[in-house]
Amino acid sequence: MTLLEVNDLSMYYEVYGGGLVKAVDKISFTLNEHDSFGIVGESGCGKSSLASVLLRLLPTNAKIISGKILLEGLNILKLPEDKLRKEVRWKKIAIVFQGSMNALNPIIKVGDQIIEAIQVHENVPKTRALQRAKLLLEMVGLDSSVVNRYPFELSGGQRQRAVIAMALALNPKILIADEPTTALDVIVQDQILKLLKRLQHELGMSLIFISHDISAVSEVSNRVAVMYAGKIVEIGSAEQVFLRPKHPYTRALMETVPSIKEAKKELKSIPGSPPSLLDPPTGCRFHPRCPYATAICKQVEPNLVEVEHDHMVACHLVGGESNE
Amino acid sequence: MSEFVVKTENLKKWFPLRQGIFDALRGKPSQYLKAVDGVSFDIRPGEIFCLAGESGCGKTTTGRLMLRLLDPTEGHIFFDGIDITSLEGKELKTFRKKAQIIFQDPYESLSPTMSILDIVTEPLVIHNIGSKNERIEYAIKALEDVALKPAENFLRRYPHELSGGQRQRVAIARAIILKPKFIVADEPVSMLDMSIRAGILKLMLDIRERYKITYLFITHDLAIAKHICDRIAIMYLGKIVEIGSAEQVINSPHHPYTKALVAAIPIPNPLVKVGDVPIRGEVPSPINLPAGCRFHPRCPYAIAICKQVEPNLVEVEHDHMVACHLYQ
């Protein structure tokens, strides 16, 4: 069943001097219940901006230009702020921001920080909130005594677990995790990825996992979108996108990822660098770096078209099923 | 010609911790953070030698010791057959001409107020090489060698005008302008996007051929190490636990820590998931090190001896050494 439907969503940042940074540009996707959805892309492709729009947690210079975000049929973009804060944020959709494990207040005990998150949204007495905080910490694999600890007493992996516990405090239907393992070492990364997978199954929630790391996304997500320069260029099941990529960008990206299981190979890079979103290229945004670009790619922006069941690609060279 | 370009012998770096006045008066012994604690290895001519491990394992400190950017507490460093451990003044400067470094973060390692020309020619100025015009010539050559073309267009620009990949190329140009024999590359691609990384790695391999350079490559990313390094040493809490060719260490790891490290790395294939990684917890503090083998509190195979005796590196197959009691 569809839980979240994002339709033709565009969000631009106004910058000093009158320019517009097209960080999220005409993006559409759906998230089903119990889905583990991955968003992968390089820095500056708009993946974190997309996460912020989903919760409408935007800086003042961000402007939503078009589109709808339907959460169980209700358009989040039309909700008044206080209703959004009380009924949607944290209760329905929670987020673990990039680097939030380092944003815990150093002088407040972990338990009190979780209690605060609970009491902001629900009118429960402190003792019950504390009880819930302990359960939450146990759920993420920490000892319940961590409620009495300060963030500096915890290791990076433990802090990341505490932040995840805080995000789950109100039993959200959707958890967004933005680069939750980027600053962690591999062994701890593996523990956090396994934790997220376990929680997603046990709690029956949907997970939106955002990362630049294709290997981490393919470990966690069963559906995947690839973003480039503010747009989704390919979307489908993890197998479709990572094992049978169709978009030239996805294909090139897969060539750049070294795998520890493969024999030594020459790593490939993609010539050029990602474009500025202030003045993105016309037509297909990937065309200046694309080895297969033709005349039409420079002029006309390609739409996402279905190339096989549930697998969509935005590329002029990959047009519908007949080309497959 | 010697069999190695650089060699370390029982290299140690202990950082003293600040002690309170009462502890000092009571005569409590001072505490040390043992960042590097007895590391010996050699790097052979023309090879890319990788030091890998998790954050805090001492890999960066080892790299800095080898360039004498830090002074070792104990042990020796040999470069080209000469003991450089206590070189000073002119001799140290001569050594530094032959050994350079590329830092992790090209957004911080280049001065924002210097032009690319000034950045790239600074080593020439320090070592008093060439006239002004010659320096510009050398800079153009170095920039062309790192594929920043046309080089003339880059000379007058500033770091903020360049992308991350281009900045790292400038850092490499600065490192090669003195035609060094040895370069320490400390996580040179970890700040860069995937699509840019391979280009920088390829450039480093290119330069190795053209300039006959030997590299110490410091990384936490074993997948990259496997694809570009010749030999790999795995560090844990200031010690090398395993050392061998890239294939030996990654394809047939022997030390339980290396095994876990290799097993925990996800691969870009959704059909293959990471299995059980049989170690728990996180790296303990390098101040109060566990007795015996440093890895024993996390090791699923630890036996009595592991808690008491520190294991030495022993050869398990040709050129492949492991420090673990299970193989002694």
Q: Can you describe what's shown?
A:
The complex is a heterodimer of chains A (324) and B (328). The two termini of chain A are 29 Å apart. The relative contact order of chain A is 0.14. Chain A has 324 residues and is an alpha/beta fold. Chain A has helices at 47-54, 81-87, 110-121, 126-139, 156-167, 186-203, 214-220, 238-243, 248-256, 295-299, and strands at residues 2-14, 20-32, 36-40, 62-71, 74-75, 93-96, 174-178, 206-211, 223-228, 231-237, 305-308, 311-313. By secondary structure, chain B is an alpha/beta fold. Chain B has a single domain (6-327), classed as P-loop containing nucleotide triphosphate hydrolases (Rossmann fold, 3-Layer(aba) Sandwich). Chain B has an eight-stranded mixed beta sheet, sandwiched between helices. In chain B, strands 2-1-4-5 form a four-stranded antiparallel beta sheet. In chain B, α4 runs parallel beside α7 (164-176). The longest helix of chain B is centred in the middle third of the chain and has 18 residues, at 194-211. The model of chain B has no long low-confidence stretch (mean pLDDT 92).
